[in-house]
Amino acid sequence: MAQNTSMEEFEALLNESFEMDTPEEGSVVKGKVIAIEAGQAIIDVGYKMEGRVELKEFANPGEAPEISVGDEVEVYLRAAENARGEAVISREMARREEAWDRLEKAYADDQRVEGAIFGRVKGGFTVDLGGAVAFLPGSQVDVRPVRDAGPLMGLKQPFQILKMDRRRGNIVVSRRAILEESRAEQRAEVIGNLSEGQAVDGVVKNITEYGAFVDLGGVDGLLHVTDMAWRRVNHPSEILSIGETVKVQVIKINKETHRISLGMKQLQEDPWDLVGAKYPLSSVHKGRVTNITDYGAFVELEPGVEGLVHVSEMSWTKKNVHPGKIVSTSQEVDVMVLEIDGAKRRVSLGLKQTMRNPWEVFAETHPEGTQVEGEVKNITEFGLFIGLDGDIDGMVHLSDLSWDERGEDAIQNYRKGDMVSAVVSEVDVEKERISLSIKALGGDKFAEAVGGVKRGSVITVEVTAIEDGGIEVEYEGMKSFIRRSDLSRDRAEQRPERFSVGDKVDVRVTNVDSKTRRLGLSIKAREIAEEKEAVEQYGSSDSGASLGDILGAALKSGD
C-alpha cells in the first residue's frame, strides 16, 4: 500500500515537472545551433527537442545569412512535435514578435525606427523593420516625387511610424517625415547664418513664369522676376538657366515661414539714379518698343529704364486706333521725354512730338484761298470730309457745297470715294480743323453779277419764263422773279402773258439780299419812280398841267 502511494506521488511530481519545464507552443524560446545542413539550421531548443529553420530566415533583406554552429538564437515554437518527431520552429516569427514589441514601444515614444526597403507593391513599397514588414506609401518616400527608387532598395535608413495595428498586422511608415525634419533643421541652421542685405552665391534649381528658386545650400529662396534686372524681363529663362550659379542679395527673411526673398538687380547700379540728367524734358531719344498694351506702348530707353507712350501721344491723326497698328514690338522709334516721375520711376514719352504737327504744316503750305483736291472719306448730315495731304481731313459744310442748291440737296450729288476739288477757307491748328468750300471754286457769281448794283438802280433784264404768278427774269446769269403785282403801275397791265420769253425789260432794284442771293425787282416801282422824277422836273401836281402833258414833255425832252 505504501509502495503504491509513493509511485502515485512520483508520477504526479513527474507530470508537474513536465508541465513546468516544457515550453508552451506559440511562445518564443531560446535554442542553440547544433548543425547546418541542406540550407537549414538544426536548433536544439532543449527538453530533448530539436527543430529545423531555413537559413534565409536568419538574413536581412538583400544580405547573406549570418549564422554559425554554436550560436544561440531565439525561435518561435509553433508546435512541440511534427510527424517526424521534430519541433516546428520559426526564426522569422520570433523576429516578428520581438520586432512588434520594440516597434510598439518606439511608436508610443514617437521615436524613429530603422529598416530597409525590400519590395515594391501597389501604391508604395514594403519595408523590413527588423522582422516586421511595414508599408511605405509612395507619397511618403521623399519630399519630392521619386522616379527611380532603385538606389533606396536594401539601404538601412530611419523611418517614422505613422500608424500600426498589431491585431491586423498593419504598420505604415514614412521616410518623408524624417527628411522634412532633417531639412527643417538644416534650413533653420542655414537661415540662422543669413541676414537681410547679405550677398550670397546660389544655384538655380527651378524656373517658373514668376521667378526662379535658388538653392542657398540646403534652403531655397525665391528670386522674383521683377528683382532679376532693372529692365523688363518677360520670362526668367531669358537670363537664367537651371544649374547656373548666381550671386544674389537676401532682400527679406521670414523667420516664421522660413521664406527667403532674393534679388539680383539690387547688386547692380540703379539706372534711375541718372535718369533726370540723361533724359531732360523735351529731349528726343531713340528707344526700342518692348511691350504693347491697349493704352499705349512701352519703350526702353536703356536697360532698366522704360517709358510709356500713351495712345493719345502716338499719332497726330490716328485717334481711335490700337497702338499695335502704329508700332510693333522690338521696333526702334524716336520719342520725346514729356514728363519724369522719379519717385514712381515713370517716364512719359511722346511719339507724335518727334514729328511736325500736320495741321501746322498744312496751314503753312495751304493759305486760305488755296485750291486742294482729295477723296471723299465720309459723308455726314452736316457735310463732307475730304482726305488731304499729311493724312488729315478737311470738312465742307452743307452751306459751302453750292451757291444755287440747298445743302441738303447738293450733298446728294456726292458719294464716298469721289475725288473732289475745294478751296481752303479756314485752318484752325489748335482745334485741328480745316474748313473747305466747294462752291467757292468758281468765285461768287452773285457778288460779281451785282457788284455795281444797289437798291434803286434800274437794270435791264431778259424774260426767261412766263408763269401765272409773274415772270422769271435773268440778269448777268442770276435768276430773279417779278411778281404779278410788280409787273405794272396800271392794274390792267399786270398780266404776265403780255410778256414773251426773250423780251428785254427795264426794272428797278428794290432789294439786294446777299444771304438768299436774290435781287428784288419791280417794273411797277420803276414806273412810279419815273413819274415822280418827271413831275419834279417839268411841273408840280398843282400847276394845272395834266399828267399826260408832263409825260409828253418829258418824252419830247428825251428825244
From TrEMBL:
Ranges for the S1 motif domain? 26-92, 110-176, 197-265, 282-352, 369-439, 456-524
Keyword tRNA processing listed: no
| SMART domains in UniProt | S1 (SM00316)
Its cellular-component GO annotations read: cytosolic small ribosomal subunit
A biological-process GO annotation: translation
GO terms for MF: mRNA binding; structural constituent of ribosome
Does the record bear Repeat in its keywords?
yes
Q: Where are the transmembrane segments?
A: none
- Which UniProt keywords are given for this protein, alphabetically ordered? Repeat, Ribonucleoprotein, Ribosomal protein, RNA-binding
Q: Which InterPro entries match?
A: NA-bd_OB-fold (IPR012340), Ribos_protein_bS1-like (IPR050437), Ribosomal_bS1 (IPR000110), Ribosomal_protein_S1-like (IPR035104), S1_domain (IPR003029)
Q: What's this chain's function? A: Binds mRNA; thus facilitating recognition of the initiation point. It is needed to translate mRNA with a short Shine-Dalgarno (SD) purine-rich sequence.
Family named by the database record: Belongs to the bacterial ribosomal protein bS1 family.
Protein known as: 30S ribosomal protein S1
Q: Which organism is it from?
A: Phaeobacter italicus
